[in-house]
Structures are given as structure tokens and as C-alpha cells.
């Protein structure tokens, strides 16, 4: 073939490959920018962003320690009757039709499209992205390893199928993203166990559990799998922005695809995620655990307690004013209980728990809430530790620890950082928000403590007594002067 003709054919092929890429980028740029613009336009900015609204939406990012907040804070602040139905479950319902006060879920920010936006406060916790990837990997394997008690994968899968229809609780296999990650790891663990049986006894000399391919999927293989790209990497940003594969937004899949294919477009999603954080009532950090918990108790817990006390007072006042009317009504009109029969026991339980919680809130304070939290988290951690040890025994010697994490090669760690560049930027921004919130709470507590010390401290009491005595002396002096002046005036007239 003529050299000139060859060159022409080559240029045509190159242009044919470049044009679709450019065309796709232009399409993606338009899709992402349009979504970002509409998302920023729908922001609701309240007069005081630190004020708790009617509904609290706890946007629980996986592996950030949110479970302790749910069990040790929120379950003490809200009754079962106040929780939105199926929290932490397959949350496919319209909460706007439910009279609930607490929504706790792994769902992403797109859930706000189902909520009364102007009446909803959002709280969340973020974690250092590298640590979160490690923790996600470990937890996926930990839960999957529980199924190794079965002789084979078929048996384990059938057991899960039998348990689900009659189960009353919430299984990890029902919760995003574990409903995708755990079955993936479960299948992998059984495949590796079967391979070991075929090979006979294996002497595992490596002491790096993150690279022990005879027992578990190596971490580097895990983070490079398409499922990790879809569900884990930049997961905090996508969840806060509302773009996970569990999103309610119609355009979420296409936006996520475009951002994953064209890295530069991620900046638009990051900007939306940052604005979402700006509008939240509270943003905590896993690494600053103690400070985050204290701030949550003071920012969120104090307001929930205050709201409950205000509502109780209002209800008691309304009940007293309508007591006569209620009595005459009950005597003259029959009760209609037909529609309540099927839910009688459930309602009784909810009523009981609500009454118990009301009594607790009447005596609850931020200090007592923190005391209860400390006891609860200690117990919860012990339970989690026991389950973790029992589970990881089945894949020993592939046990995970913080020391083991530090031995992972810098190549793998750097790859995790690169794959989670949006999360790293969002985490830095969350740290800035946290610092501002922390400063605000400290200033508020300092001013409150100063006022309380005036009344409660011995020195404060002395000072107030001195001021009161001085005011009394001044008042008596004025009275004395006034009386003398009147007497002089009366003498002059005489």
C-alpha cells in the first residue's frame, strides 16, 4: 500500500477514536453541570442553621461510627413511635406521608427529595477516606466470614433465603452498601476455601493480612474491582451529594458515570457536597470522637430535649383546658376502636416507650446524656469486638489490626488516596466546618457557664448578695432623702 495512503488511513482511525471521546466529554460536562446547577438552586437556607427543625435526618455514611450515635444518642432521644418506619432497612417509602421525627439511614442525600425540606435538619459524620476504605474492606470480610460455618456457598445462600421471609429485625444483607459488598466477599471466601481444600495443607508465611490471597481477597485487588469503584471510592462525596447507586435522583447514574470517566468533572459534584455540608445542623468527625460526641450532645441533644419539654408543657396545658370537654365527649360519644384492633399490641408498646422516654427527657440534661453515651458505647464496643474476633477466627491468620494497616505498602495507600481524591477534599472541608462548630459551641458553653457560676458558685453567690445589699442601701437612702425633703417643704409652708 502507498505510504501516503497508509498515513491517511491512520489519521482517519485516530480521528474516529478521538471524536467519540470529545463528544462524550461534552455530553458529560453538560449533564454534570446541569445537575450541579439545579442542586445548588434548590438549597434551603434558614435564618439560623444551628436550630433543630421538626424532622432529624441522620445521613449515616458507612464505617464512620454512626452506629454508636444511633444506639447511644438517638435511641435515647427519640422513642420508637418517633422513628420513621424501616430506618436502616430497604428505605423505599415516602416519609412525607409519615408523622415521624427521626430518620436514620445509609441512604444518600437524595432522600431529601422525599422529605419536607423546609422542616428537615440533616446531620452526618465523615471519616478520613483512607481509614474508611480499610474499615470497609475489613467489615465486608468480617460479615462474609460468618457464613463459613456452612459446608458450602449453596448451603449458606439457602439459609439466608429461609431466614429473610420471617425475619422481624434488620439484616446487614438488607442495608446499602453491604447488600452488595457482603455477598461479593462471601462468594470469594468460599471460593478460596474450596481452593485450599483442593491444594491440601498450606503453609502461609506472609504476616500481612491485607495481602494473604490464600485466605482472603488482597486489599489491592479489592480496591481495583469495578464494584469498589461503583460502591466505595469517593463514597462520602457521592452520598452527601446524593449520587450513590441507591439514589432517588433519576440522573444520578449518568452523573456518576461521567464523573468516574472524566475526573475533572468531579469538582462540580464536590462543590455540591460542600454546600450540603454547609447547610447541615451538625457535621462530626470519626477521628475527633470525643469532641464530636460532646458537640453532638450540645448541638443536637440539647435541642431535642428542649423541644420535648416544650411540647410536653403545651400538651399538658391543652389537656387541662379541654378536660371538661373531653369528659362530656367520652360519655356522649362511643369510641371507634374497630380500626385499631390489628395494631393494639404494637401501639401499646409504642405508647409505653413514648411515656418512658418523656419521663427520661423531663430529667435529662446534656451532662446525663453524655454519661449514658459513655456507658452505652463501652458496652457496644465490647459486643462488636466479640463478634469481630469470632468471625475473623474462621479466616485466621488473616486478622486485621491498626498495626497491620501501618505495614501496608505505600503504593497501595497512595492508590487509595488517588481513587478517593474527592473524599479527601470533602474531608478537609468537613474539618474546617467542625472547627467552626466547635468554636461556636465552646463560646456558647463558656457564656452559659459564666452566668451559671454567678448563681451556683460560692463566690458568685457572695457577689450577687453584695450587689443586692448595695441596691437595698441605695433605695433606702433615696427614700430617706425623699422623706426629709417633704418635711422641709411642709415647714416652709407653715
TrEMBL record:
List the signal peptide residues.
1-23
Membrane spanning residue stretches? 463-483
Q: Pfam families from the xrefs?
A: Sulfotransfer_1
| Every Sulfotransferase domain range | 95-143
Q: Which Gene3D superfamilies match?
A: P-loop containing nucleotide triphosphate hydrolases
- Residue ranges annotated as compositionally biased, kind Basic and acidic residues, are 337-363
EC number per UniProt: 2.8.2.-
In this chain, the stretch annotated as Disordered covers 310-364
Query: Molecular function terms in GO for this entry?
Result: heparan sulfate 6-sulfotransferase activity
- Membrane topology type: Single-pass membrane protein
Cellular component GO terms, alphabetically? membrane
> Where does this polypeptide localize?
Membrane
InterPro entries to which the protein is assigned, alphabetical: Heparan_SO4-6-sulfoTrfase, P-loop_NTPase, Sulfotransferase_dom
Family to which the UniProt record says this protein belongs: Belongs to the sulfotransferase 1 family.
State what protein this is by name. Answer: Sulfotransferase
**Organism (species):** Salix purpurea
